[in-house]
Every structure is written in C-alpha cells, then in structure tokens.
Amino acid sequence: MNRFSEKGWSISVTQLLMVVVALIALAATITLLQSDDSSADDVNATTFYYDRMSDDQKEIYDGMKTMTIEHRSFSLTLDDSVIGQDPSTVIPPLNDKIDGVYSLFRQEQLYYYWMDGGFSTNYTTYSGGPQDGKLSSSTVTVTFTSAMTAYGNTDAQITTNVASINAILESFRPSVDVTSRYAKVFNIYNSLYDRFIYYQDKEHIPEGMIVRNIATAFLGATYPEQSQIVCEGYAKAFKVTCDYYGVPCIIVTGTGVTDSGSEGHMWNYVQMENGKWYLIDLTWDDQDDIHTLFQDFFLAGSTTVDEHFGHRAMSVSHILDTKYAAYGVPSLDTNAYPFTDYVITFLNEDESTLSSRHYLIGDTVSVPTLENYDDTGKRHTFDGWAVKDTTTVIEIPPVSGDATYVPIFTVSNIMYTITFVDVDGTVLSTKTDYLYNDPITVPTGFISITWSPEVPAGVTEDKEFTATASIKASGQNVVAKTSNRDILFSAAAMTDIKALSGTLRIDLASGSVLFDNTAKQALNGDQTLNLEEKSFAILRSSVQSALKNAVVYSITFGTNNTVFEAGKATVSLNFTPRAGQDASNIMLYYVDGDKITEVPSSYADNRLTFTTNHFSTYAIQIPQETPDMVKLIQENWILVAILVFAIIGMALSYKFS
Hints:
Elements: H1 13-33, H2 48-51, H3 55-65, E1 73-77, H4 87-105, E2 119-122, E3 139-144, H5 155-171, H6 173-176, H7 181-193, E4 196-198, H8 214-219, E5 221-223, E6 226-229, H9 231-244, E7 249-258, E8 261-271, E9 277-280, H10 282-285, E10 286-287, E11 292-293, E12 298-300, H11 314-317, E13 318-320, E14 341-347, E15 353-360, E16 373-375, E17 378-387, E18 403-413, E19 416-421, E20 427-434, E21 448-452, E22 463-474, E23 477-482, E24 486-489, H12 491-498, E25 504-508, E26 511-515, H13 517-521, E27 527-534, H14 541-546, E28 551-557, E29 569-574, E30 587-592, E31 595-599, E32 602-604, E33 607-612, E34 617-621, H15 628-635, H16 637-656
Parallel strand pairs: 4-6, 14-18, 19-22, 23-25
Antiparallel strand pairs: 1-3, 2-3, 5-6, 7-8, 7-13, 8-9, 9-12, 10-11, 14-15, 16-17, 17-18, 19-20, 21-22, 22-23, 24-27, 25-26, 26-29, 27-28, 28-34, 29-33, 30-31, 30-34, 32-33
Helix pairs in contact: 3-4, 7-9
C-alpha cells in the first residue's frame, strides 16, 4: 500500500482502476469528437485543473470520481504518522484541501451535477488510556452528505439524464460542427443563448445547485421554453458543450464588477487555434430583459473594453480568484480574438430568416433543406437555393464572403380524387382530376340519397363520400338502402315511388321489407320505417311466461303506415339462433297486448322471412328440447318414486339392525 506524507493519501486499487478506465474512455471520446479545427498547441481542457494538481489532490479528485448519487463516500489513507495525533490538527487542514479540490472538481466533472457540496470526514480515535481521543487509524472516510435530487436520486436516473443531455448536445451538430473554431464557438454561443434565461426572481435566487448545474440548463426548462439558471449554470453549460465538440474551455471564478457594484461571478476561458486564450461570458451577454445577445464578452482579450456595460476592460470587470495562481490558469491574450468572419443567411419564402451563421473564408456551409408542402390547391416542391434576387438554383459554394440565399419552389396544381360509394359498398363514381375548389359532381339517378360526410360546394382534399340512405328506381321497382335500422321517406320521395307500378324493397341493417304495389300504394310520406330488436321486457308478463327467452322485434312505419289493406309486405329479419338452439324449431308470433298469434315463417341463410299486411311487434322463439334424463323421469315418475322409497327403507333397516 502506498503511503503519503500529510500532503498525500491513497485510495483502493479498485477505485484507481475505475479512474484510469474513465480517463481512457474520456480521452477517446474527446479525440473522436474533435474536428478539423484542433491545433497541436491545444490544451486538454477537459482535465485542465486535474492535470495541474499535486498527487495528493489527484487522489481526492479520483476518489470523488468513484462516487455515484447512491454511493457518495470514498476512503483516504493518510500517512501512519497521523496515528496518535489530535484530530484537530489533522482533520481541518484535510477538510480545507478536500473543499479546494471539490471547488475545481465541479468546474470540470460536469456530469456529477448532483453533487451539492456538503461533506463530512469520518475517522476513528482511541477510547481511554493515554491516547484517548487521538487518531487510532490513518484511514478516513469522506462522505458527501447531500445531493441535488431534483432530476432523480438513483444511478439509473442519472445515467438516463446524462444520455438526454448528450442527445441535446448532439442536436447542435448541424450548426456547431463546422470547420473553423471561431464559427464553432460562435454557434455554440448562439445555440445556448436560445435555450437559457437568467433566473427570473433575481432577488430570491435559490441556494444549492438547482440553478447552477447542467441538468437544469438542459433538462429543466421552466420559463416557457427556456431554462432558468445563473452564471454558474451558463458557464458549466458552455464548457460541457465545448468539451463535447473538442473546443478547449475552462471555467474560472472571481469577482464581476459592474456599475451597480461587485459580486461573485463565474465565466469561461476558451483557447483558440492560435494557441491563445480569450474570455467568454455568456451570462452577461445574454440580456434576456431586452431579448438581445450582445458580444461584448465574446472572445475578449484582457484589454478589450465592453461597449454596453460601463466601458471597462476585461481585466477590470472580471477579476480572477487568487486560488488559480497555483494551477497555471493561462493569461488572456491582450486583444480580442482577431477574425474576419462572414455571415451566411438562408431565408424563408416570406423572407424571414431561417438561419444565419458565422463562417470563416473557405468554410463549408451547412445547408438546410426545406420540406415540400401543399397550400390551397398548389403543391410546392423544394428545388434548392438561389442567391437572393435570382431564381437559378445553385450548389452552395464554400464561403468567400457574406451571402444570402432564398428557397426556390416549383408550384403545381394538386389533382384531387373524389369517390362516391353506395350504402352496400358499391362504388358509384370516382373522379381523379378535380382541381382545388372545383364543384363536385354528385351521382344522379336517385329518387333520394344522403351522404356522409355532407358534400361541400367545392373540392379541398381527397375525399370519399358514402351514402347513408339511398332510394333508386330500377324499371318500375324501387330499392331503398340504409346502413341504419330506420329510413325516412319524404313526401316527395313517396310520391315518386307510388307513381311506379312495381315493388318497393327496403334494405336496413336489421333486415329488409318488400312491399307489393298494393301495399306500397297504401303508404304515406314523411314517415320513417323502423325495424329493430327490442327488449324482452316490453312484453306483458303473461306473454313473457308463454314465450320464455323469445327475441322481440318491432316493425313500425310512422303513424299512418301500419295496415296495408289488401297489400302484403314480406319481412326478412336478420336472426342467428343462440348456441345449442335448433333453427328448424323456430316459431314466429304476432304479439297484440296479451294475445299472441303464430305467424307462418321460413328460415334460411340467417334470415327469418314472413308475410304480413300490418306492422306491429313480433316475437321469435325456439322451444328448448327437454333433456333425455328429464324426459325419462317425467315418463316413469311412479317407478322412480317406488325406487326412492325402497332406498330409504333399506337405509333405515340397516341403521336399526
């Protein structure tokens, strides 16, 4: 086991291996994510502070990396010389060192967003004797006692949240993953500005990490569509995005000086491809009160003077904490980052801005693609982009200067299809070449027909219309159809029907009725034919007793179409016997109050057919077959009774013997 002086400690081999594996994986990830703007002079900013720590500080840092939200402890082994010493001389300096490492750890290990700062150091002491109260072991346990659990308190939830944050970072790639580092940093700046807003209740900012971490920044939108965070949240979100896209970036803290005074503040340093470092302060540039993103603190040098916040040099408005002197935090370049950038803008059809990005000369432009769309009968097909004020589609060239492009669409007429279908599913007509707002040609030749949905005056979309009820003559005969259990005959329709000398057939969902001409002539218009199954309970009790479990149908045709005098109506009811019933035993009864009269009928193809000259209530009954055993008992009840008495007598004689 390694031992260190008071300035150093050790952790377990397992923990050390976990740290090594994590560092290797992190290095591989950063290598994969770096783009062509990387430079040989780039610093590995993902572990900038860790790389500049002493060995004992690294041991604490590595111990913190072994923690999860469910296991927030790690052990340190001090030099054996601490055994026998008073805890008051060993533990306070140790706690100061842990606190110092944590303050830098949370500026680099941003996925440990749940760490909330409070910790305890546990140790053992002698009890009794001359060493009473002195340290009895060189091993101490560091436990972080609190955690920010607003986004989950399990390791699985943290893993899910990290994946969600990375998915959001990946969504920036179309605009951020560009060739030049300047354009990359600028577009990161813009992408984050769109997502964040400074915590609205500035007078009552919450304590703890809830507004100071990347989970709230990326997952905690609470202000319509923007996350409310403070400067620490902005700085961490900017760094984690830079880390993801291979831009060297560190977080620093210090004092921010404004016209209203000074206060603690956090911001970023970014290393550009020239090897020099520049200041980034997205918090101050994001002036949400006026919905403006300034660039006063974007890639600024130490002598750069802001334009909108008091005209101070960065060295005056952003004063570093003194702790960074021990870690070789780079000095800012004197001047702001020198660049000649160009703006490439893509417009929508209405000339509003679709996207506007900064590029350097020679950069490849990220070209958006627009969707085809339909609008009031016209199909707009996206062909590509043209230079503004021209109409020729071109391939977007590498950047050579500012440029604005407009979309070019080919506009063509949309051809619509209108189909009409009869009640029984027969296609009556299909027309495929309607234009927008053309009047619709409705099938003719019907005495009456209704459609669902209702047919509009003009075409607006492909549509199929289905008849809900149709009445049509075929020679002297008339056929009426509906998908319902009833159908209305208007006075006009009935007049047309009665003018013909043939039959009237009506097909409903529950069956059909065929009127001969004599019965038809007795009908009146403005009446509804209704053929439907009714509840058995509508029958009087005497009829219920006589017709047990019968199926009841009611046939009505308004108030004036009950009797057809000398005419006849042939009724076919859709009827399926219940399981176990014998269709050959079907009986049909006409029900008139307490009176029932059997009606001749026939049954075939699940339809019960009968002829009548009036409509009323009818009941269908299938008598139940008496089981064979019951029949046997009924037919031989005397013998059964003698047998029962004989068995009882034998039982009694056995009992008394």
